[in-house]
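Lab meeting, action items carried over

1. Structure of the six-component assembly. Owner: GW. Status: complete.
Input record:
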Amino acid sequence: MGRMTADESAHQAPADVAATPRGARTMARLRAAALEAFAELGWQGTRVEDIVQRAGVSHGTFYTYYENKAAVLDALVRDSQADFAHLASDRWEADDVRGALERVIGGFLDLYARDAMLMRTWLQAAREEKRFGALYREARALFVERVASNVSAVVTASGRTSGPPARTVASTLVSMVEHFAYCWMVLGESHERADAIASLVLVWGAALNALAGFEVVELE
Amino acid sequence: MGRMTADESAHQAPADVAATPRGARTMARLRAAALEAFAELGWQGTRVEDIVQRAGVSHGTFYTYYENKAAVLDALVRDSQADFAHLASDRWEADDVRGALERVIGGFLDLYARDAMLMRTWLQAAREEKRFGALYREARALFVERVASNVSAVVTASGRTSGPPARTVASTLVSMVEHFAYCWMVLGESHERADAIASLVLVWGAALNALAGFEVVELE
Amino acid sequence: MGRMTADESAHQAPADVAATPRGARTMARLRAAALEAFAELGWQGTRVEDIVQRAGVSHGTFYTYYENKAAVLDALVRDSQADFAHLASDRWEADDVRGALERVIGGFLDLYARDAMLMRTWLQAAREEKRFGALYREARALFVERVASNVSAVVTASGRTSGPPARTVASTLVSMVEHFAYCWMVLGESHERADAIASLVLVWGAALNALAGFEVVELE
Amino acid sequence: MGRMTADESAHQAPADVAATPRGARTMARLRAAALEAFAELGWQGTRVEDIVQRAGVSHGTFYTYYENKAAVLDALVRDSQADFAHLASDRWEADDVRGALERVIGGFLDLYARDAMLMRTWLQAAREEKRFGALYREARALFVERVASNVSAVVTASGRTSGPPARTVASTLVSMVEHFAYCWMVLGESHERADAIASLVLVWGAALNALAGFEVVELE
DNA sequence: CATGAATGAGCTTTCATTCAT
DNA sequence: AATGAATGAAAGCTCATTCAT
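Predicted assembly:
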């Protein structure tokens, strides 16, 4: 979901610090250590000290590569979001909407599972640092817009014109997947993967069918 | 949604400090000042200093009434959640499921609108303070459980037995309303109230119909 | 010499922190401790820690009264400069120019002796902090301007019109007294007070006589 | 003015690093870069990083040539002061004292103008680093002593014996020229070169005449 | 009940200097 | 000779909380 603006990526470390293999190795260790620390201690709770300890480097070295802990998180989130963005860009083929739903929802949940700790950290940071809040809104907006455009296509094809705006519907559907994933994988609500996908596909499918006025998505 | 546990309410101010009218007035001013400060500065950004300044009392006075800023937020959230809990406890009558959906969804959005700044603060705090995280999970669990029980009743009445578990479906539906409300009223995503309710009722209704296998909720 | 501008005094502690006698006492101790620390350790060498240790208060207390070490120095310098400013404002009476010179030069040297360590600190700070550099230029400009105006009066009375501008002459004379005092009392150059005054008065007097074309200042 | 003591020059780079043409070039670039950096950023404000960037060499290379930034400044100041020392060593011929004054004062101002940024840096450094403070006092002492000896000669020739000691008078006169030059060329006080020389020669000349008791220096 | 001065632990960031390559 | 990654000490400032008045 989304992509950095120039401003947001402005705080990256100079490209040349990792020019040597040694530098690249240290940078990678700092990244991994940061992820680990964020997972264990949370965004707030993580001090630069916690990162460098896990990376096994000195305090000062951190600042050779990242301006501050926000810069490391930024780098981590940017990579993760690139993968999410792929999902959003898929078009739903009219003859296999169900398949499209399964792919986008399943893919989303899988990525979320992979990056759950990162998502948690990002959302923690987003509550307090404008930078990450804006990034979140931007990433979400992209997702909502792509879903809205697919929903629109389905409804238009069906000939229906009434009903709530596709953007609002898309916003509710995206909210559902996103927050469900958060509650499941970050807060620890207990669910089976198969049930989760079945539920989400059922709700999305039923909603699309209702909007279209006939069975666009096979639910049985 | 939810209710304090003994442990969480343990840090209330001594009952007697607010016994006098003067004490009660000071306490009320601190509450109002805290809400205002949280809204303006966020959970992190609010210092005890910011609260007492707005309340027009001295620094030390704060601690006469509340143990720390978490205690004020706790009190504010507790009151707000009592209202949310009412919504969750409604049973959906079989002959007017649509009406029930509209009441619970509409009521939720109205309460959320009233307390949007408080919700924001609470969620900020929940990301970093165990106390509020637990409170959030508890409140949410209550809601999910009540919705699951209503969904179950609808499905059972229809005679269907297959499909995803009611608890998982309920979790997705509750996630949808809750996060949509957050994105709309806290993050500032732009929506019309009527469209919002229409969308949410449509999705919930369609999902219930799909689960039940026939039109439990009239959608036209 | 000179007076604070609004901007320069902007960083003063809030007036009310020293409202109580206890607060006033602490503030005075911090001032005295700062002066002592500056004298011993120099501007650069003095850490807030050095000040609070000498004052016998905790680190945090310092920041209740002063924003940083520059703010204490500002306060100290402001008071000192008020005294210097008095000297500069004297008009030289035509019938006792020598007396006027002795008063202004002697007075300057006495004040400088009293505040030598403060002057040293101020000048150290002025080399690196714009705030104090500007303050110094301002204080000096006031002095030069007053001297120039007195020199002008003497020359005009004499009927002479040629010669270098009074402002330039005043600048050289003020430089002489000021830097001589610095080298003597700060750098430790060895001089007798009587010789110092005799030399300075001799040079100023001779210069005035030369400008006026006859003996305005009696030198024998 | 002045010359290094063994101790102060002890920290020179090993003689052989600049033995090769390449080494000599790098060293020269570091010198020039340092001067530039000091002028732009001040003594405090200049980091080794700022110097090597301007010189286009790596961080580590700096330490091949100079022990630290003080060592570069030391080298720069040493060269500059050699030129000042020439001025001080001139004897004033009895039949052209005015010419001697014009040469020494004019020469001083010209050198000061050429090296104003270096003087500023040196004086900044002198306020905080003993090494440069001592160097300054030494350079100044030499100047004062030479002037005192010339003043003495003039007075002795005149037959006068009373009056303040030549050393004290010389100290005031040297202070005047030096600090006037600083205020003019470093602090930016506005003066015309001709007026500056006229004023300074007038004051020195008048002082000498007063000491001698007759017109040693023609002032009209 | 109210006041507000005092405390001090805690985290961030900078940069001179070293040294393995 | 040159490189540049790594080091780590050092200092500033904030703010929740206490407690004497």
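2. GW to write a short summary for the group page. Key points so far: Residues 16-17, 19-20, 22-23, 26, 57-61, 64 of chain C lie near DNA strand E (CB under 10 Å from a C1'). Chain C has two domains: 15-71, 74-212.
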